[in-house]
Design brief:
The complex is a heterodimer. Chain A contains twelve helices and 23 strands. Chain A is an alpha/beta fold. Chain A folds into three domains: about 70 residues, Beta Barrel (Elongation Factor Tu (Ef-tu), domain 3); about 260 residues, Rossmann fold; about 80 residues, no CATH class. The longest helix of chain A is centred in the C-terminal third of the chain and has 23 residues. Chain A is elongated, with a radius of gyration of 25 Å. In chain A, about 50% of the residues are buried. The model of chain A has no long low-confidence stretch (mean pLDDT about 90). By secondary structure, chain B is α+β, with helices and mostly antiparallel strands. In chain B, a hairpin with a 2-residue loop joins β11 and β12. In chain B, α11 packs antiparallel against α12. The longest helix of chain B has 24 residues. Classes of the chains: A alpha/beta, B alpha+beta. At the A-B interface, β5, β17, α6 and α7 of A face β1, α1, α4 and α6 of B. β5 of chain A pairs antiparallel with β1 of chain B, so a sheet runs across the interface.
Chain lengths: ~425, ~600
């Protein structure tokens, strides 16, 4: 039996300080309060003073509450029984199922050796043309969805979860609204995907510090499944809440803030999570899609900014659409050469025309005269937005490519598209010479 | 003197406070004893009998009272044959070997010898018994990849030494004694092919440092022509995320005309290192006929690896660069990204509770950056030979704003600035180096007079473009419009370069000079043009032709054919006769 301490020296924010001996950095402790037990983690040692962040928050903690050190860091059960289950941010059941205590694993383990990584090569199909055609998602990629609050990012994630061709989905909710949590649960249940999903949900009503655990727990479990040959998709929403929780603890611990109050190690902290995305040679993989809401639609805000430097591209969600400009999948070149021969050329060609459409739109707004070419572009732009960009569109890649050709043929003559002649001969819809549709 | 030892009295993230007995040195290495594991750490501040140390590993599980063994040695790297082609972490751990022992994950506390004794080399002695030598002198050579690797008197052997014995030519292990050196007091030291040198101390064995004036060809047109780099010089590439910093570094690491490239992947994505790791052993370097890996060393401490080791990694890389420089080689060090390195310092400074400077970076940030870049240089050795270290560092400014401390601190000390711009990368104008904002103090592939002329066009073109946004195309004169078209043309066919095209990806200095002259003739020439549509059509045709030309192999038949067609296109619209154009051309650039 480990020693119990029942004198808390200091309480500030969500951090308590006790005098204790033989405590290890990162160790877990249990705090017994009038309202029940709460877990706490050692975040600083200073001689006999031990600082702990309390996951359930410090509200109502009394100076004579008991603190019992558990002698191990945060652990989570790993077994196939996790499938279809819903847990809180600290791994307690949120559904009415039993608590799982066997085969505990440590969270926040070491980094993968770069020499053991392989170049990603498999595409993950989502049925969303703006992803599949224009910015393909690749197995083992880490991609954030940059969004303004109010955009349907959770609907997007739920759709991807339902349609993505993966073995297992882990949904990490960080500061998730309760409604959104129910939405995820119901959507996945209706779609029949619940049995291959594991939820770790920290809702907006839960104590802030618990938010810090969600990515680590989700990714630790993902890693173990990936090592058992599973292709795992980890969905995290919303990482901005994670970063804000980091900020809160840092300020409480009187750390010097670096940028808008965020701690100087924000980049390293985010990277430690995102870099868990990996394709294990001869085994499974982890792909991470994470929502980052941009405070004030400002991409230079420290959270999206640091995230952008870490991740392999980003999806911009704006006006309920994935923006083709700004959105980028850095790994798409690795997979879109193997899909269909017209994929790359069509992707580039349509984006170039769409960029011209945007310019024309500006010209139109400024009152310049519209030429015949401008009118063609306007027609194209509208069709493109309606038939391909809308989030409701749900078609496989090949159909989306065919549709792309249809749209081009409906607006332009073959020469105007700037696509290579051999592709036009092969793919240009028969019976259509151009605009006379 | 016995080494100090101590006990841990405080843990704060990766900073430890250790109460020590005996004497400790600043930057001395100590090991935290954690069960069977020994975790490497470095002393970064000493106060009374308390030493503050940064631990190069995750600090989880360390407790008060844990023991620390000090080594009395500074953080050092092993130098000797066998470094080329290797992949190290920030502390010079050979990563493939670590993977063989530990599997997928980087277990903490595993430190392997970078240059193990299983490496064997064919040694040829160059000194004989009784010779007097000093540090840095060549004792013999071994062949390493395509280089003759000089086995030198260890750099920490201060004073004069007499060669007491020297091994005969033959095959030796890297840790076999190949010579015995006797110092002035008659003490004899056995010396093998490998020795250690502290990473934070520059290697200073040369006669003099020279001004970097020799152009270093990177084969990237916009760099070599407009903002060139020099051997022994320094340059930086700041840019927002997604602007193509890393792709630019990768291109440079492939095509740059140097002997050895050292890539320091510092706190960036692991995936990017993997591409280099997997591709370089397959790619053939046209100049040597060997794979690119045989001229490359990778030091990688990616973003999820421990932060303190990230801080060490750039020093590990630059020390190896200096070592190969001593063999009269030209070394290029590419550090991606120096911002992550600066952030590592910031994290540690915060834990030390130092008074923060701007954006919480430590007040000594600028001097540390300056010291790092100052380790670049072209040096002359006492035998007259030359060697150089060129440093190119990327900077990842927060929010893409160049007014931040790391970018500003770097700009003060580098010789060239390649600023990447979001607008250019959004417009897919790669490489996204901004031609107007960027600058260089070094001589380039093309004469200064010609580049100044081209630059003026870019300036004017930009002005006209801004104006057109207000008054529209209709409100712009035909003359201005053709200047605008010419500047766009210059941008499209010369400044932009297709990294995925096998020919266009690298343009030699000779080709650059040749092509640039043709381009200048187009800029200088006056054309007969009816109206704006006519002008645009004509320049679009010229552009198409020129782009085809860029894709044609240098001096091939198709290169010559396209050139003739291009000249015919220019001549067909030219106001002046061919001879007059030549006169104007010569007069402008005499």
């Amino acid at each position: 039996m480990r020693k119990i301490y029942n004198k808390i020296e200091r309480i500030a924010g969500n951090v308590i300080i006790v005098k204790a001996e033989g405590v290890k950095y990162g160790e877990l402790a249990e705090v017994n309060t009038d309202h029940g037990k709460s877990l706490a983690e050692v975040i600083r040692l200073d001689n006999e003073l031990v600082a702990l962040q309390v996951y359930e928050g410090t509200r109502g903690i009394s100076t004579n509450d008991q603190v019992r050190f558990l002698g191990h860091p945060m652990m989570i059960c790993f077994s196939d029984d996790l499938m279809g289950r819903i847990f809180t941010g600290s791994g307690k059941p949120r559904d009415n199922g039993p608590e799982l205590m066997e085969n505990l694993i440590e969270i926040g383990g070491p980094s993968v050796n770069p020499a053991k990584r392989i170049v990603p090569r498999n595409m993950i199909r989502t049925g969303i043309p703006m992803i599949d055609v224009f910015n393909s998602l690749v197995e083992s990629q880490k991609l954030p969805v940059f969004s303004v609050s109010g955009e349907p990012y959770n609907e997007l994630l739920a759709r991807i979860a339902l349609q993505a061709e993966v073995d297992l989905i882990i949904l990490g909710g960080i500061g998730l609204k309760y409604d959104d949590y129910l939405y995820f649960r119901d959507t996945l249940e209706e779609g029949g995907a619940l049995s291959r999903t594991i939820f770790f949900v920290h809702t907006a009503a839960d104590p802030v510090v618990e938010a810090l655990l969600v990515p680590d727990i989700s990714l630790a479990v993902a890693e173990k499944f990936a090592l058992k040959d599973k292709r795992v998709l980890v969905l995290l929403t919303d990482m901005t809440n994670f970063a804000d929780a980091l900020k809160e603890i840092a300020i409480t611990m009187e750390q010097v803030p670096s940028n808008r109050g965020y701690p100087g190690d924000l980049y390293s902290q985010l990277a430690a999570r995102y870099e868990k995305a990996v394709d294990f040679e001869g085994s499974g993989s982890i792909t991470i899609l994470a929502v980052t809401t941009m405070p004030g639609d400002d991409v230079t805000h420290p959270i999206p900014d640091n995230t952008g430097y870490i991740t392999e591209g980003q999806f911009y969600l704006r006006n309920s659409r994935i923006e083709p400009f700004g959105s980028l999948s850095r790994l798409k070149q690795l997979v879109n050469k193997n899909t269909r021969e017209d994929h790359r050329a069509l992707m580039d060609g349509m984006i170039k025309l769409y960029a011209l459409y945007k310019e024309t739109l500006e010209k139109k707004a400024m009152g310049f005269r519209m030429s015949e070419w401008d009118n063609k572009l306007l027609k194209f732009g509208e069709l493109f937005e309606l038939k391909l960009m809308a989030l409701s569109v749900n078609i496989p890649l090949e159909k989306a490519l065919d549709l792309g050709w249809e749209i081009l043929a409906g607006c332009f003559t073959p020469e105007e598209t700037g696509l290579r002649t051999e592709l036009i001969t092969k793919f240009w819809p028969k019976g259509k010479k151009g605009e006379e549709e | 003197m016995t080494n100090a030892n101590g006990k841990i009295v405080g843990v704060n993230g990766n900073m430890l406070i250790v109460e020590y007995q005996g004497n400790v040195k600043m930057n001395e290495v100590g090991y935290v004893i954690l069960g069977k594991k020994r975790l490497k750490s470095e002393v970064i501040r000493i106060r009374g009998n308390l030493a503050e140390m940064q631990v190069f590993e995750m600090s989880r599980g360390i407790g008060i009272g844990d023991n620390v063994d000090f080594t009395n040695e500074l953080l050092a790297v092993e130098l000797g044959p066998g470094l080329i082609g290797q992949i190290f972490d920030g502390l010079q751990n050979p990563l493939p070997e670590v993977a063989r022992q530990c599997g997928f994950f980087l277990e903490r506390g595993v430190y392997l010898t970078p240059l193990p004794e299983t490496l064997r080399w064919d040694f040829t002695p160059l000194v004989k018994e009784g010779d007097t030598v000093e540090r840095g002198d060549t004792l013999g050579t071994v062949p390493e990849c395509i280089f003759t690797h000089k086995i030198m008197v260890p750099f920490n052997f201060y004073g004069n030494f007499k060669v007491k014995s020297i091994a005969d030519a033959g095959n030796y292990s890297s840790k076999d004694t190949i010579t015995e050196l006797e110092d002035e007091n008659g003490k004899i030291y056995p010396v093998c092919m490998v020795f250690e040198w502290p990473v934070k101390r520059p290697i200073d064995i040369y006669e003099k440092r020279l001004k970097p004036t020799e152009h270093l060809s990177t084969k990237v047109r916009i760099i070599d022509t407009l903002v060139p780099v020099a051997r022994g010089g320094t340059y930086c590439i700041p840019g927002p995320f997604g602007a193509g910093k890393t792709v630019l570094q990768q291109i440079t690491s492939r095509y740059a005309e140097v002997d050895i490239v050292i890539i320091a992947a510092c706190g960036e994505r692991a995936g990017e290192v993997v591409e280099t790791l997997r591709e370089f052993p397959e790619l053939i370097d046209p100049r040597t006929g060997k794979t690119l890996m045989e001229r490359t060393i990778i030091v990688c401490n990616t973003s999820s690896m421990p932060v303190a080791a990230r801080e060490a990694s750039v020093y590990t890389a630059v020390t190896m660069a200096e070592y190969y420089r001593q063999m009269e080689l030209n070394v290029l060090l590419l550090a991606d990204s120096t911002s992550r390195w600066a952030q590592a310092m910031r994290e540690m400074s915060g834990r030390l509770e130092e008074i923060p400077g701007e954006e919480a970076f430590p007040a000594y940030l600028e001097s540390v950056i300056a010291n790092f870049y100052e380790r670049a240089g072209m040096v002359q050795f006492k035998n007259g030979g030359l060697g150089s270290v060129t440093i190119g560092g990327t900077v990842s400014p927060a929010g893409g704003n160049f007014e931040e401390p790391v970018t500003q601190g770097t700009l003060k000390v580098v010789g060239a600035f390649h600023g990447l711009s979001r607008e250019r990368s959004d417009a897919r104008r790669y490489p996204a180096i901004h031609p107007l904002d960027s600058w260089s103090k070094y001589p380039g592939a093309v004469g200064a007079k010609k580049t100044t002329y081209a630059r003026q066009f870019l300036f004017r073109g930009n002005e006209i473009d801004q104006m057109m946004k207000v008054v529209g195309e209709e409100g712009t004169s035909l003359e201005d419009y053709s200047i605008y078209l010419k500047s766009e043309f210059l941008d499209y066919v010369y400044l932009q370069q297709n990294a995925f095209d096998p020919v266009d990806a690298s343009t030699s200095a000779t080709r650059q000079r040749y092509v640039f002259d043709v381009l200048l003739r187009i800029l200088v020439a006056r054309f007969t043009i009816k109206d704006k549509t006519d002008a645009r059509t004509y320049f679009n045709q010229l552009r198409q032709k020129f782009l085809d030309w860029n894709g044609a192999e240098w001096e091939s038949d198709s290169f010559k054919n396209i050139e003739n067609e291009l000249n015919a296109m220019i001549a067909s619209r030219q106001v002046e006769s061919e001879r007059d154009l030549q006169v104007i051309f010569d007069k402008t650039f005499e």
